[in-house]
Amino acid sequence: MTTVNTYLYFNGDCESAFNFYKAVFKKEFQYLGRYKDVPEAARINFPNCTDEQIMHVALPISKETVLLGADIIEPNKKETKNNFSLFLSTDNREEADRLFRALSKGGKITLPLSDQFWGSYYGICLDRFGINWKISCS
User: Fold this and answer.
1) Which residues have a Cβ under 8 Å from the Cβ of 16 and sit 6 or more positions away?
2) In CATH, what number does 7-71 get?
3) pLDDT given at position 1
4) Is the pLDDT of residue 128 over 70?
5) What is the pLDDT of residues 34-57, one digit of tens each?
6) Are 113 and 99 contacting, i.e. CB atoms less than 8 angstroms apart?
């Protein structure tokens, strides 16, 4: 079976973001590695990353899904712009509401959770790290 997982890149705040996601999803990291763990010969590929920044982090969300991330530092980049959303499908409205409240705190609600014409309970928010989330319960 092939699976698809999302890999998020951050400009220095990966650890803060993933600690936030860890709390939201009530899960533990499967792996967290820092640039200080990268062999010296390979460090040339990451010239702007400091020892303590995140080289790779894995947060299992479910049996099939792992949220992945890293800091990729671009010195002149002020904010992250993305053209994707992470889509969460829950088993019940209570979990959809909990996730939506937690993820949108400090961020922005684009579409409040509500019953949609296609039959889903659905909403969209942007978290405080600039990541788009679509949350649905059918």
Assistant:
1) 129
2) 3.30.720
3) 54
4) yes
5) 999 988 888 888 888 999 999 999
6) no
Tell me, what's the pLDDT at 22? 98
Which residues are registered as beta bridge partners of 115? 121
> pTM (2 decimals)?
0.82
Residue 54 structure tokens: 């995140």
CA atoms of 42 and 110, how far apart (whole Å): 41
**12 dihedral zone (left: phi>0; alpha: psi -120 to 50; beta):** left
The residue-averaged pLDDT of 22-27 equals 97
Domain spans in the chain, listed from the N-terminal domain onward: 7-71, 85-137
Token digits for 5?
Answer: 């997982």
Between β-strands 66-71 and 54-60, what pairing exists: parallel, antiparallel or unpaired?
antiparallel
Token match 């479910």: residue?
62
- pLDDT at 89 > cutoff 70: yes
Superfamily name with CATH number, domain 85-137: 2,3-Dihydroxybiphenyl 1,2-Dioxygenase, domain 1 (3.10.180.10)
Walk across the sheet containing 121-126 and list its strands.
85-90, 132-137, 121-126, 108-115
